[in-house]
Design a protein that fits this description.
alpha/beta, Rossmann fold, GMP Synthetase, Chain A, domain 3, 3 domains, nine-stranded mixed β-sheet, five-stranded parallel β-sheet, 20 strands, 31% helix, binds xanthosine-5'-monophosphate
C-alpha cells in the first residue's frame, strides 16, 4: 500500500485510539497495533512514523511490557508518550524510577522552543500529566527539551536517530498545544504530506473488504442507525448483491422509522443489495406483555431480536461473513501483550453464535462517531441518516416506563415526533447531544373541554453531552417547550400532561430505563 501511515504501538494506555484519531486529524492514515508487533510486520507496513502509547505498568517492574531495542534502528521516527517515553528511556539506558512527586492533571511545562516537537508552541504551556514514574535521567545521546519543577525530563529528543519522547499526553484536549506538537511530529519530523482523507479510508476499506470477501456471502443486521447504515453501505459498495441486510422492525422504532429505513435500503432504495425487512412488532409486544422491570424488558428485546435474526439467517443459509457496525467506543480492548483482544458491544443484546458464518467484518472498528458520520457522507448516505442522534438498541422499549403496549408505543412515537419537529423548526436542536420524549407510567387528572381526563404524562428530555457518560439537561427555550406541550396535549390522544426532565447524568441516566 502506498499511502503514508503512522502506526501507534499499544502499551495498554487509555488514549491509544485517541492518539490514532489525532494523527488522522493531521490527514495522515493511522492505525493501532499491539506493542509486540514484529519488526517484519513493521517493515511490511513501512510506516512514516511510530508512536508508543502510555500504559499502566512500570518499565522496571515485573509486569513491564517492552518491545525490542532493534525498533530504534529501523530508521523510522518514533515518539514515546508517557509510559512510551519511559520505555524508550529505559531501553536506551536512561534511568526511570518512581517520581518523588506524582503529577496528575493540568501542569505547566517549560519547553525548549528550538526543539522540533515544540515549533510554534509557547515557552510555557499547559499539558496533561498522569504519571507516578518519571525519567530521572535521559539516555546519553538525548537532549532534554522540556521540564516541570518536579519532572526533570518532561520531554527529550535524539534528533539524529529520529527519537522523541514526552512525559505528558499531547493527544488529550487538556494539553492546550498538543495538536501543534503532534502535527510537528507527524508532518515535520516524519515528513508526512498529510493528504489522507476520509474518502481514502472509504476507498481502501472497500478494496480490502472486496479482497477479503471474494465471492463469499455476507450478512448484515441493519438497524437504520448511523453505524450499521454506514457499514452496510460500505459493504454494498464493495460486494453488491453478495450482501443481504436483515432489518428487524421490533415495533419499538421512532415514528415512520421502519419505512424510512426501507426507503433507503429497500428494493426501490439507493443501493444494490438484498434487503429483508422483518415486521416482528406483534411478536415483541407479545413477549413484553405484563413485563415492567427495565432489565427484564431489555433482555427480552435483546433475545427476541436474536431469535428473529437467526430465523432469517437460517432461511438465507450458510453465509461466509457477518458484518457489524462496531465503532471504536463500542470496542472494549483488554489489549496488553496479545494482539488486542476485543469484545464487541452489541446494539441489541448481542448477535447469535449459532448463525453459521466464518468471520466477522467490522469495517468501522477504528473510527469514532464523528469519523463514521464523515465516512457516511463520503459514501453519499442521506444526511438525515448520517446525522441521526443515537438511539438505543432496545428502542422505545426503554422510553416507555413500565409495561410496553402497542397503544403506549403509538403515544410515545407521536409525542416524540412532534417534539423533534418543533425543535427542528425552532432551530433549538442544534448542538444537542440527544433529545426525545418518554412515556412515564404516571396517569394524572386533567380537564379538557370541561371534561375530566385521567391520562398519561409525557416527559421531554434534551441533554448536552460530548461522551454520553455524563450529561446536563439542556436549557431549551420556554416558548418552544410551550408549543411542544400544547401540540402534544392537543394532538396525541391519551396524554394530558407534559413534563420536562431537568436532571443531569449522574444522578439520572439519559434514557429512563
Ligand atoms: P444512558 O441511558 O445509559 O445512555 O445514560 C447513554 C447512551 O447510550 C444509549 N443507550 C444504548 N445504546 N444500546 C445502545 O446501543 C442500548 O441498549 C442502550 N441503552 C442506552 C442512550 O440512548 C444514550 O445515548
Amino acid at each position: 500500500m502506498g499511502r503514508e501511515t503512522v502506526i501507534v504501538l499499544d502499551f495498554g494506555g487509555q488514549y491509544n485510539q485517541l492518539i490514532a484519531r489525532r494523527v488522522r486529524e493531521c490527514n495522515v492514515y493511522c492505525e493501532v497495533h499491539p506493542y509486540s508487533l514484529s519488526l517484519d510486520k513493521i517493515r511490511e507496513i513501512n510506516p512514516k512514523g511510530i508512536i508508543f502509547t502510555g500504559g499502566p505498568n512500570s518499565v522496571y517492574g515485573e509486569d513491564a511490557v517492552l518491545c525490542g531495542k532493534e525498533i530504534f534502528d529501523l530508521g523510522i521516527p518514533i515518539l514515546g508518550i508517557c509510559y512510551g517515553a519511559q520505555a524508550m528511556a529505559h531501553l536506551l539506558e536512561g534511568h526511570v524510577t518512581t517520581a518523588p512527586v506524582s503529577e496528575y492533571g493540568k501542569t505547566e511545562v517549560e519547553v525548549d522552543r528550538s526543539a522540533a516537537m515544540f515549533a510554534g508552541v509557547s515557552g510555557k504551556t499547559t499539558c496533561w500529566m498522569s504519571h507516578t514514574d518519571y525519567i530521572e535521567k535521559a539516555p546519553d545521546s538525548f537532549r532534554v527539551t522540556a521540564h516541570t519543577p518536579v519532572c526533570p525530563v518532561a520531554a527529550m529528543e535524539c534528533s539524529e536517530r529520529g527519537l522523541y519522547a514526552v512525559q505528558f499526553h499531547p493527544e488529550v484536549m487538556h494539553t492546550v498545544e498538543g495538536m501543534t506538537m503532534l502535527r510537528n511530529f507527524v508532518l515535520n519530523i516524519c515528513g508526512c504530506k498529510g493528504d489522507w482523507k476520509m474518502d481514502s479510508f472509504v476507498e481502501t476499506t472497500i478494496q480490502t473488504v472486496r479482497d477479503k470477501v471474494g465471492k463469499g456471502r455476507v450478512l448484515c443486521a441493519l438497524s437504520g442507525g448511523v453505524d450499521s447504515s454506514v457499514a452496510a453501505v460500505l459493504l454494498a459498495k464493495a460486494v453488491g448483491k453478495q450482501l443481504t441486510c436483515v432489518f428487524v422492525d421490533h415495533g419499538l422504532l421512532r415514528k415512520n422509522e421502519g419505512d424510512e429505513v426501507e426507503a433507503v435500503f429497500g428494493p426501490t432504495g439507493l443501493y444494490d443489495l438484498n434487503f429483508i425487512r422483518v415486521n416482528a412488532q406483534e411478536r415483541f409486544y407479545r413477549k413484553l406483555a405484563g413485563i415492567t422491570e427495565p432489565e427484564q424488558k431489555r433482555k427480552i428485546i435483546g433475545e427476541e431480536f436474536i431469535r428473529v435474526f437467526e430465523e432469517e439467517a437460517k432461511k438465507i443459509g450458510a453465509v461466509d461473513f457477518l458484518v457489524q457496525g462496531t465503532i471504536y467506543p463500542d470496542v472494549i480492548e483488554s489489549g496488553l501483550g496479545k494482539s488486542a483482544v476485543i469484545k464487541s458491544h452489541h446494539n441489541v443484546g448481542g448477535l447469535p453464535d449459532c448463525v453459521d458464518f466464518r468471520e466477522i467484518i467490522e469495517p468501522l472498528r477504528m473510527l469514532f462517531k464523528d469519523e463514521v458520520r464523515k465516512a457516511g457522507r463520503e459514501l453519499g448516505i442521506p444526511e438525515h441518516l448520517v446525522s441521526r442522534q443515537p438511539f438505543p438498541g432496545p428502542g422505545l422499549g426503554v422510553r416507555i416506563v413500565g409495561e410496553v403496549t402497542a397503544e403506549k408505543v403509538r403515544i410515545v412515537q407521536d409525542a416524540d415526533y412532534i417534539y423533534r419537529e418543533e425543535l427542528a423548526k425552532a432551530g433549538a436542536d442544534k448542538g444537542l447531544g440527544q433529545y426525545f420524549a418518554t412515556l412515564t407510567n404516571m396517569r394524572s387528572v386533567g380537564v379538557m373541554g370541561d371534561e375530566r381526563t385521567y391520562d398519561y404524562a409525557v416527559a421531554l428530555r434534551a441533554v448536552n453531552t460530548s461522551d454520553f457518560m455524563t450529561a446536563e439537561a439542556a436549557h431549551l427555550p420556554w416558548e418552544v417547550l410551550g408549543t411542544v406541550t400544547s401540540r402534544i396535549v392537543n394532538e396525541v390522544k391519551g396524554v394530558n400532561r407534559v413534563l420536562y426532565d431537568c436532571t443531569g447524568k449522574p444522578p439520572a441516566t439519559i434514557e429512563f430505563e
